[in-house]
Write a structure and sequence with these properties.
mainly alpha, Four Helix Bundle (Hemerythrin (Met), subunit A), 6 helices, globular
Length: 192
Amino acid sequence: FRRYMCSLSLFHYSEYLVTAINNPRSLSLDSFLLNHSFEYNLAALSSWVEFTLEKLLFPELKQITWLSTVGLLMVIFGDCLRKAAMLTAGSNFNHIVQNEKSDTHTLVTSGVYGWFRHPSYVGWFYWSIGTQVLLCNPVCVVGYALASWRFFRERIEEEEITLIHFFGEEYLEYKRKVPSGLPFIKGVKVEL
């Protein structure tokens, strides 16, 4: 649980720090993402309850060191990928999907954006599931995977509509070449 709390703290602190470095104009207390959503807070509370109950009822479940280590590696990978995406995007990265294109918006396709169209979402997806693998929380592993997948499927579709509006054929070409990075999520369907 200590490694989990350290990982959680580092994730939220580094969200703020990287935003401060990359996009100080958008910096606020919300940049910590502590108040991300009611669902996010409910998920965290659920994981703590599951961990506590299983620790009391099935303590051997919480002592699977190799599984916890896999979870820690997922957390590290996910957080590093997310921060790499934020740093690569620079001032183009914002925690809120933008509805209006500014003069400084550019389509970022290099670095980790050459691997995945949505590397920050891929990072967060694996980070969130990794936190539950780290805690050896089987119920929350499934719950986090399903909830995160659904959230990012909807978020990617919403964001890609905006990106197509901003960048047109340039984004469509990028979309054809680079996968979203998340399993079974192709993004918004474009009918020509």
